[in-house]
TrEMBL record:
Cofactor: [2Fe-2S] cluster; [4Fe-4S] cluster
Keyword field: 2Fe-2S, 4Fe-4S, Iron, Iron-sulfur, Membrane, Metal-binding, NAD, Oxidoreductase, Repeat, Translocase
Gene Ontology CC terms: membrane; oxidoreductase complex
Localisation: Membrane
Coiled-coil spans in chain: none
Primary localisation category: membrane
Location of the 4Fe-4S Mo/W bis-MGD-type domain: 8-64
Protein name per Swiss-Prot or TrEMBL: Formate dehydrogenase subunit alpha
GO BP field: formate metabolic process; respiratory electron transport chain
Domain of life: Bacteria
GO molecular-function terms, A-Z: 2 iron, 2 sulfur cluster binding; 4 iron, 4 sulfur cluster binding; formate dehydrogenase (NAD+) activity; metal ion binding; molybdopterin cofactor binding; NADH dehydrogenase activity
Family named by the database record: In the C-terminal section; belongs to the prokaryotic molybdopterin-containing oxidoreductase family. Belongs to the complex I 75 kDa subunit family.
Originating organism: Crenobacter caeni
Gene: fdhF
Span within the parent record: 230 to 923 of 924
Length: 694
């Protein structure tokens, strides 16, 4: 119970944390929230919620919320509180000023994967139709952009193939580079239930994750891969599938591109991909690799779930394609219990990409260079747009340091804390002439901003989120926006102040426009969502109630495509000075940069980041549990509390990144995925030494 009294009404909404997208019931009395509970009707959660979602109301009602627009002429000056009109006019003049001095392409925007589909759509429309360029990106750049690339290349659709309930038909579950117990807890419960019913488990991860504890010792397989060698290991699994004749030739013949199969078949059978050849480098015994391949290849239904431990590498896109190759080779696609499924981190990171908040694609993943697609948007929006893709977030930083990109509108994203090599990001933000930040709290990025506009929480606005299973669910306004405007209203006010007519009366009108311009959303409307509760895209005339399983009879691209995935070792190597490999990730109680969870009851349970280190490595350095330790990489250094645990392998350390004072990302490098520029957060060579004891 949040406030006293009997609620007068209840609304169904969607959790604004992770990509599971749990439905929640908000019970309201007057202008106050009385209760927030998981909804039994939720298609993704069936009445469950985790510790993050249950306490999500805490940040919405936190006293540190930004309640009024703030402006300043220079980032060294104190903020001035102003009204919305003055702030919007100031922001518009500042951004136009940068363009007048440096050109149309000198500004851009970052949409939020925490905001709604409608808001992401409006930010990319603002950039394309009003700024006049394609310099738009979102946080998928630093998390799942390789999923978009790899899944589209293999199957033709930049999204997971299944619905969550599909896992109940899986006989084998392969979890690669993901820790759903902490990061996707409600889906982890479904996974555990299926494991207790007898499904087999393979975990590919440098850490021993909680899912393995569901089973009796020895039942699950743990392939404790050395950070940075996923592609090598997955190619070795593929080698075993082919060599031991565990592939499904009927499926390949009927559903896959034959030339790509033959090319991949020959590529994989190179001796350098044999398990015995790779075990030394990837740190997993050949016998274990072969056993994993046999179990995956022999299962009637084998499902793959993966996370940022796959994507956040210099070979992230290759690893996604390597996973897709396994599913194609064994026919594990197109029905319940199988598939390749990214576990998306943020509540609406799937949606932000679906909405075209990326520099190369409009809504529905259609390239800006395709004349006919661009023409349809130009006609609808009444503008002309360039045919070349815009800048990705890392390219914005580079261009800022070169004096070519000097103005930014950043909605609901804390790039100064969350992006790799913080010093580089801070220098880029310092180099910009005008930065507009919109957020619910003062964040690290706002330290470099000239305008800070209040954001609205998920409880204060209408809209939709799209979760990891492509499920579009409503969020419903239970409280008035604390500062008087929801984010979608602010974006369109900025567009109007910059001279473009944008006047939606309600987010449902934005969704209607999205549906008109996006084939995969053609059947989506608020009316349908009210009727069905939620719907999975594609939703169109052929699938008026949406699509639970993709690629059932044919792939979106026609035939499935095998992609060769040569292993290229990361340039981030251990040395005498930096002998350990750091990998980073989330913990159960906190979410991303922690701006929200640090302002909820979750803070009472965990109030700082930790470094997990193997007992052997700890003993060699005189480190005991609870010690303050200095962690240094080639990029920078920070201090964390040590947790001594054998859940990490010797030679590997693990840290979370939820607290700005820890600044874990001062350590991470600028290495990035070859295809999408997704940063390599998961491999950083470090040294650890004791700096004190609490
Ligand atoms: Fe559900 Fe994720 Fe929210 Fe937890 S954080 S309640 S698993 S959506």
């Amino acid at each position: 119970l949040i406030a006293a009294g009997q609620p007068t009404h209840a609304l169904t909404t969607t959790c604004a944390y992770c990509g599971v997208g749990c439905s929640l019931e908000t019970e309201v009395k007057g202008g106050q929230l009385v209760r927030l509970t998981p909804s039994r009707a939720g298609g993704a959660n069936h009445g469950h919620a985790c510790v993050k979602g249950r306490f999500a109301w805490g940040y919405a009602t936190h006293p540190e919320r930004v309640k009024q627009p703030l402006i300043r002429d220079h980032i060294t000056e104190p903020w001035r509180e102003v009204g919305w009109d003055e702030a919007i006019a100031f922001a518009a003049a500042g951004l136009r000023g940068v363009q007048a001095r440096h050109g149309v392409g000198a500004i851009g925007g970052i949409a939020s994967s925490r905001c709604s589909n409608e808001e992401a759509y409006l930010v990319q429309k603002l950039v394309r139709a009003v700024f006049g360029n394609h310099n738009i990106d979102n946080c998928a750049r630093v998390c799942h952009s390789p999923s978009e690339y790899g899944l589209k290349a293999a199957f033709g659709e930049a999204a997971g193939t299944q619905h969550f309930d599909s896992v109940h038909a899986a006989d084998l579950i392969l979890v690669c580079g993901a820790n759903p117990t902490d990061a996707h807890p409600v889906f982890a419960s479904a996974l555990r239930r299926r494991l207790r019913e007898g499904a087999q488990l393979i975990v590919i991860d440098p850490r021993r994750t909680g899912l393995l504890d569901t089973l009796h010792a020895g039942e699950g397989l743990h392939l404790a891969v050395r950070p940075g060698t996923n592609v090598l290991l997955l190619n070795a699994i593929a080698y075993t599938l082919i060599e031991e004749k565990l592939v499904d030739r009927d499926f390949i013949g009927a559903r896959c591109d034959e030339a790509s199969w033959l090319s991949w078949h020959d590529f994989i059978l190179l001796l350098e991909h044999a398990p015995e050849a790779v075990e030394g480098e990837c740190g997993v015994a050949a016998a274990l690799i072969r056993e994993a391949a046999r179990r995956y290849g022999r299962a009637a239904n084998a499902a793959i779930y993966y996370g940022l431990g796959v994507t956040e590498h210099s070979q992230g896109s290759s690893a996604v394609m390597a996973l897709a190759n396994l599913a194609l080779a064994t026919g594990n696609l197109g029905r319940d219990g199988v598939g390749v499924n990214p576990l998306r981190g943020q509540n609406n990171v799937q949606g932000a990409c679906d909405m075209g908040a990326v520099p190369h694609e409009f809504t529905g993943y259609r390239h800006v260079g395709i004349e006919e697609v661009r023409a349809s948007f130009e006609a609808a929006w009444g503008v002309q747009m360039p045919e070349d893709a815009g800048l990705r977030i890392p390219q914005m930083f580079e261009a800022a340091l070169e004096g070519r990109f000097l103005g930014l509108y950043c909605q609901g994203e804390d790039i100064a804390q969350s992006d790799p090599d913080s010093r580089h990001v801070h220098a880029a933000l310092m180099a910009m002439e005008f930065v507009v930040v919109q957020d619910i709290f003062h964040n690290e990025t706002a330290r470099f901003a000239h305008v800070l506009l209040p954001g609205a929480t998920f409880l204060e606005k209408d809209g939709t989120f799209t979760n990891a299973e492509r499920r579009i669910s409503r969020i419903r306004r239970a409280l008035p926006p604390l500062a008087g405007m929801a984010d979608w209203q602010v974006t369109q006010a900025l567009a109007r102040a910059m001279g473009y007519p944008m006047a939606y009366g309600h987010p449902s009108e934005v969704m209607d426009e999205i549906a008109r311009l996006t084939p995969t959303f053609a059947g989506v409307s608020y009316g349908l969502l009210d009727k069905l509760g939620s719907v999975q895209w594609p939703c169109d005339a052929n699938a008026p109630h949406g699509t639970a399983v993709l690629h059932a009879t044919a792939f979106s691209r026609g035939l499935g495509q095998f992609n060769n995935t040569p292993y290229m070792p990361t340039s981030e190597a251990v040395s005498r000075a930096f002998p350990l490999l750091l990998t980073t990730g989330r913990i159960l109680e906190h979410y991303n940069v922690g701006a929200q969870t640090r302002r909820t009851a979750n803070l009472a349970w965990v109030d700082r980041d930790h470094l997990r280190i193997h007992p052997q490595d700890a003993a060699a350095r005189g480190i005991r549990a609870g010690d303050r330790v200095r962690v240094a990489s080639r990029m920078g250094q920070t201090e964390l509390d040590a947790q001594v645990t054998d859940t990490v392998q010797p030679g590997v350390v693990y840290a979370s990144f939820h607290f700005p004072q820890s600044g874990t990302n001062v350590l991470t490098t600028l290495n990035a995925d070859w295809a999408t520029s997704c940063p390599e957060y998961k491999v950083t060579a470090v040294e650890v030494e004791r700096s004190g004891r609490d």
